[in-house]
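Example S7 (structure tokens).
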């Protein structure tokens, strides 16, 4: 990283010696995209490091002439679409990998809403969306993230997620979920008591946790990659008509 004469930033990529000019409107996400990287977590700037101050500003420190030069930078320009008057939120922290949200709520309500790229963690969803699309930048949900949600009916998961944590959708009004092929674990009671979740459930998760779908309304299940189905994973699913299991399945535990 270096400065041009007009104070814009210049990045030289080792892979192809390509020069990338970053002015006031550029973001680290756009720089990563120009380099063909999947996200800013893949950026490794040899003479700079990224930090966050107490005002949640992302700071880029560039080492030049035996000292560090400080510059405020944007992580992702698309985050401006999220932080508007229609949204209530609280930031837990910001890092090079993205923004961690403590909670998120669409105050005026929306039929469909896509969380912008750059959000990598959501601890709690407070409602206001019927059809929610999760970006590939999302790495994790907090436990009980969508628990007892009364207005979220459909959700599409991004490919950054590997786990549906404990009681993530417990006792919610969720009707349909589209799993990404990266999900490896569906946690304990993740969809328990989801009385409107009809499915079909199609997932290649390796581990289906205890009581994962207990008491839900699912009718068809296709477990394309399951290794273990834990205790009571599908107990009290009295509408369940069809289950397809794969050759790699090792354990079906009690209940």
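Recovered sequence:
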């Amino acid at each position: 990283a270096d400065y041009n004469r007009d104070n814009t930033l210049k990045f030289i990529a080792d892979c192809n010696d390509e020069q990338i000019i970053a002015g006031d409107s550029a973001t680290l996400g756009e720089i990563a995209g120009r380099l063909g990287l999947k996200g800013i977590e893949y950026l490794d700037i040899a003479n700079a490091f990224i930090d966050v101050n107490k005002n949640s500003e992302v700071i880029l420190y560039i080492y030049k002439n035996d000292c560090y030069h400080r510059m405020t930078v944007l992580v992702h320009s698309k985050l401006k679409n999220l932080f508007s008057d229609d949204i209530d939120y609280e930031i837990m922290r910001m890092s090079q990998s993205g923004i961690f949200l403590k909670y998120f709520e669409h105050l005026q309500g929306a039929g469909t809403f896509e969380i912008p790229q750059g959000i990598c963690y959501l601890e709690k969803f407070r409602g206001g969306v019927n059809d929610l699309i999760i970006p590939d930048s999302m790495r994790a949900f907090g436990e009980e993230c969508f628990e007892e949600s009364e207005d979220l009916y459909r959700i599409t998961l991004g490919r950054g997620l590997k786990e549906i944590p404990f009681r993530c959708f417990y006792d919610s009004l969720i009707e349909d979920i589209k799993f990404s092929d990266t999900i490896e674990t569906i946690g304990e009671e993740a969809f328990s008591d989801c009385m409107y979740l009809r499915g079909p459930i199609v997932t290649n998760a390796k581990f289906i946790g205890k009581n994962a779908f207990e008491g839900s309304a699912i009718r068809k299940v296709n477990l394309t990659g399951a290794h273990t189905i834990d205790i009571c994973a599908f107990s009290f699913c009295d509408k369940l008509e069809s289950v397809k299991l794969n050759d790699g399945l090792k354990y079906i535990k009690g209940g």
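Notes on this example. The two ends are 59 Å apart (CA to CA).
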